[in-house]
Hints:
Helices cover 27% and strands 12% of the residues. The protein is α+β, with helices and mostly antiparallel strands.
Amino acid sequence: MAVDGLRCRAVFGNGYFDHIIRNETDAAHVIEYIANNPANWRTDRYNAM
Length: 49
């Protein structure tokens, strides 16, 4: 959430969440996900490509 004066507003759309990377193993999983994610776009039923 971002603070806009006294109001809070969502920064990301619904379905997005933050994840804290706590160790090297966690970082490796995130890096692998980012590297491999584009290969999954063709089979993603939610992708409008």
